[in-house]
Amino acid sequence: MIDVTVLLLDGTFSSTAVGPMEVFRHAGSLWNVLTGKRPAPHFKVTTASADGRAVCCDGQIRIRPNAAIAAIRKTDIIFIPTTGLSLDDVVERNAPVVPWLRRWHKRGAAIASVCSGVGLTAATGLLDGKRATTHWGLAERFREKYPKVKWMPELMVTEDSGFYCGGGVHAALDLSLYLVEKFCGHDIAMQSAKALLIDTPRAWQAGFGIVPLKTEHSDDSIATAQEWLHQNFHGTFPLEAAFSRATIAPCRRSVAPSAIKMPRSFGNSLSGTLESAPALTAKGSERSLGRTRVGECREKVPTLRRIIYVQAGGGMLVRKPARGIRSVGAIASPLCRLPL
After folding, report:
1. CA–CA distance, 273 with 277 (Å, rounded to integer)
2. What letter does residue 109 receive in the DSSP assignment?
3. Is the omega angle on the peptide bond into residue 201 within 30 degrees of 0, that is, cis?
4. pLDDT digits (tens, 9 = 90+) for 67-86
5. For residue 248, what pLDDT is reported?
6. Where are the alpha helices (DSSP H) in 171-260?
């Protein structure tokens, strides 16, 4: 039995705590009940607050925990939900939690956090130098507050050295299922998703909001082109105007840039998806954007439901079919193997 401690915090969005509790508690159980088999639960779920008292969640919802964090004697996974909408005082409001997380990390516990809860994990310093995602709307504030973390808000789930992070709010379910597969295997995760009617896979959260351009690279000409495109995005201009700034081969046609989505950045720092690539070039043609090849776009990017782009080493993108996808580095969600 795998011990999971779900941390309860004042101001949290209750679904980011209750949802994971249900995923863990019913893994290996609900599917079996529905299919006439003996339940075989895989997780023991315990809830804990800083002082053992009930917490007041967003919307005045009160949840009483099983214990105080000091009473936890065994745990394999700690799950941190959202910390609420107030970010400036999150460490002060949860002061006992920070050293508690550090102690359990030294003991080998996996630490998972979602949405604004990732900021509480980052406050421990344990995420420094590691990949992490969070709600896309919080990424810039967290970049300023915790600059040593490798923030990747375009991703729904990240994994790095025993730390698991999820995007905004309902990414708590994606993160929970990711952990079920990580600790219990693909079949249990697939059965849990089916029993709870959780839609999978969801590898990206970039489509839910505007992710700022990534310009953290050493190519000045590409950075110049990026900035020019960002400033002139709502106008109409020949793409030669942008490509000439980065010494890229010009295109032969003019398009309204609002009809396309350019890569988040170019060259070695490429990160993102060409979600509107069919509007960028005609089928069968081919253009060169930095080191990125955009061709046969109607074939390459029909929808994210059928094709998933996984960020690989060096910042490039690897095209792989959704079914049977393999993990690349530490950030490719294994849940991509679930049936579409």
Report:
1. 9
2. -
3. yes
4. 999 999 999 999 999 999 88
5. 60
6. 171-184, 186-196, 220-231, 239-243
The CA-to-CA distance between both ends of the chain, in Å, stands at: 30
Q: Which residue has the tokens 């923030």?
A: 151
Q: Two tokens at 81? A: 């939900």
Model-level pTM greater than 0.85?
Answer: no
> What tokens appear for 16 in the block?
């980011």
Residues 97, 99: Cα–Cα separation, whole Å? 6
- How far apart (Å, rounded) are the C-alpha atoms in residues 177 and 179? 5
| 223-276 pLDDT tens trace | 777 777 777 777 777 777 766 766 665 545 545 545 544 444 433 333 333 333
Which CATH code fits 2-204?
Answer: 3.40.50.880
Compute, in degrees rounded to 10, the torsion defined by CA atoms 123, 143, 277, 157: 0
Locus of tokens 């294994």: 334
Q: Are 253 and 265 in contact (CB under 8 A)?
A: no
CA-to-CA distance for 299 and 283, rounded, in angstroms? 8
Q: Are 198 and 45 in contact (CB under 8 A)?
A: no
Angle at 199 between CA 37 and CA 186, to 5 degrees: 50
Residue 19 belongs to what H/E stretch?
helix 15-26
**Domain chopping of the chain, boundaries:** 2-204, 220-303
